[in-house]
Amino acid sequence: MSATRVLVLNSGSSSVKYQLLDMRDSSRLAAGLVERIGEQSSRLKHTPLASGVAREWTGPIADHDAALKAVAQELAQDGLGLDSPELAAIGHRVVHGGKTFTEPTVIDETVLAEIERLIPVAPLHNPANLTGIRTARTLRPDLPQIAVFDTAFHTTMPESAARYAIDVETADAHRVRRYGFHGTSHAYVSRATAKLLGRAPEDVNVIVLHLGNGASASAVRAGRCVDTSMGLTPLEGLVMGTRSGDLDPAVIFHLMRVGEMSTDEIDTLLNKKSGLIGLCGDNDMREIRRRVDEGDEQAKLAFDIYIHRLKKYIGAYYAVLGRVDAIAFTAGVGENAAPVREAAVAGLEPLGLAVDDALNAVRSDEPRLISPAGARVAVAVVPTDEELEIATQTYALVEEKATEQ
Q1: Does the active-site annotation cover 150?
Q2: Mean of pLDDT over the chain
């Protein structure tokens, strides 16, 4: 293919993140963010990677159509416009693909209709993803537009892991099952971890710990996900910045009956006022660790609960996999919070898990091992790159389609 550039779009309800990559060498040409769409104080930050000097613009951006047109103008200013013949495709992050979408997919009207049909199980994300797709298709109707789904990597889970133990007919009627999220990150990091070990993904069993404000764990056997912590929605699993993670479902009924809370109030509580922020008032791990170091008991309890849940999942996925070759920490907290990594494996030496204090303290943007030399299980820090993963999957599909013609 002569066209080798891919524009990656991640459209949120009031934001658009984007990156333009050249797939000849996976280099970034530009990156940016439009936020507060629909407000008078909308903000666009654009960075052409050739200069590394960001340009910022503040003012009203009415909707996603206006936002993407503004992005196109910024790219054009750097000679990277959407009308460039070097642009091969636009890759879109779509959060929920249900059971239908198990791999990157060329977007057409049928695909759009299915993404829309899945809105009830992703009401916060799929509508925004759809808006971004429709706007981009209007701007470049001639260009292949590819959907890459957060859930796709987890569709390899066996039914024993994906099913909830509720009435089968009810579950099927309402598409209630465990889908998992952060799939592009888990896919990228599991492969990158195998590469770090000098082995093929098919030869490696990895526990991936994606620890950001949202957090999830996955058990990856021979390159395929066999279990993950998030479920029907991103609420299940680990303690997160503002989400509770695992919870006795009866807590909800209790809050409705005894607390007289509405469904919307409980939804807000569990998704936005729980997790670390609910436990100690902060969801920034740096601030929590600062408070812990100063002797703040509330912050210490929040940290301990966070680590306790994390250890439970490490142990559970160790049991699921049977043999673990590596544990990989990734995302904002996983990549930068050495105390979290240390605490997560502390006491798990009988399982072959340990970190070297000096290696763990090193800060780097490169994948690296932090376990002692000769450790039975490698402990790694692997910076995630979801945009590169989306671009890679997008470009591979476009190339495949081109060879078929």
Answers
A1: yes
A2: 93
The answer to whether residue 391 scores a pLDDT higher than 90 is yes
The catalytic position among 150, 227, 325, 385 is 150
pTM recorded for the entire structure: 0.92
Q: Tokens 């030869």 — which residue? A: 203
Q: What is the pLDDT of residue 238?
A: 98
b/e 323-347 (16+ beta carbons within 10 angstroms → b): ebbbbbbbbbbbbbbbbbbbbbbee
> CA 168 to CA 41: how far, in whole Å?
48
The confidence band for 405, taking pLDDT boundaries of 50, 70 and 90, is: low
The rounded percent of the chain whose pLDDT value lies above 70 is: 100
Cα 14 to Cα 19: distance, rounded to the nearest angstrom: 17
Please write the tens of the pLDDT for every residue from 329-371: 999 999 999 999 999 999 999 999 999 999 999 999 999 999 9
The pLDDT score that the predictor gives to residue 245 is 97
What pLDDT score does 265 carry?
A: 97
Instruction: Please state the three-class secondary structure of the chain as a single string.
Output: CCCCEEEEEEECCCCEEEEEEECCCCEEEEEEEEECCCCCCCEEEEEECCCCCCEEEECCCCCHHHHHHHHHHHHHHCCCCCCCCCEEEEEEEECCCCCCCCCCEECCHHHHHHHHHCHHHCCCCHHHHHHHHHHHHHHCCCCCEEEEECCHHHHHCCHHHHCCCCCHHHHHHCCCCCCCCCHHHHHHHHHHHHHHCCCCHHHCEEEEEEECCCEEEEEEECCEEEEECCCCCCCCCCCCCCCCCCCCCHHHHHHHHCCCCCHHHHHHHHHHCCHHHHHHCCCCHHHHHHHHHCCCHHHHHHHHHHHHHHHHHHHHHHHHHCCCCEEEEEHHHHHHCHHHHHHHHCCCHHHCCCCCHHHHHCCCCCCEECCCCCCCCEEEECCCCHHHHHHHHHHHHHHHHHHHC
